[in-house]
Amino acid sequence: MTIGTWLFTKRRGELVGTDAEGNRYFQDKRVIPGRRRKRWVMYNGVAEASRVPPDWHGWLHYTTDEVPPPGGLPRKSWQKEHVPNLTGTAGAYLPPGHTLSTGDKPKPPYEAWRPG
């Protein structure tokens, strides 16, 4: 977070809620007729957009005006838990045969396409 973002939030921000990761969500205190109120998130730690859960993503992007309840919206049985983007971390997905992949996974067989 920059000093400018901190000052802007202190002067014009109204806390709306927090998520399970500790990210805090704000909206502009001012209401200007005919305009939407500005919304933003202050991350708890690294500023990574994939750390915003789907419930709050919908609110930030004006898909819904309802603030998600504490603990998030009820999940369907087929929905998975939110997982942040792991690219560039030790938890990143590496397909079999990738040069950085560890283990004894052999490279999958490859057969070049030949026109018929």
Task: Describe this structure as you would to a colleague.
The structure is a single chain. The chain has 116 residues and is of the alpha+beta class. The protein has a domain at 3-60. The chain is built from two helices and three strands; from the N terminus they run αβββα. It has a three-stranded antiparallel β-sheet.
Low-confidence stretches: none
Q: Classify the beta-strand content into a percent band.
A: 5-15%
Strand order of the largest sheet: 1-2-3
Looking at the structure, what is the overall shape? Answer: elongated
Helix content: 10-25%
Number of helices: 2
| Integer-rounded radius of gyration | 21 Å
Mean pLDDT, to the nearest integer, reads: 86
Order of helices and strands: HEEEH
Structural class: alpha+beta
Terminal residue distance? 58 Å
The number of E-state strands comes to: 3
Question: What keyword list fits this structure?
Answer:
single chain, 116 residues, 3-stranded antiparallel beta sheet, 13% strand, elongated
What is this entry, summarized?
The protein is an alpha+beta fold and 116 residues long.
Describe the SSE topology:
Blueprint: H1 3-12, E1 13-18, E2 24-28, E3 39-42, H2 54-60
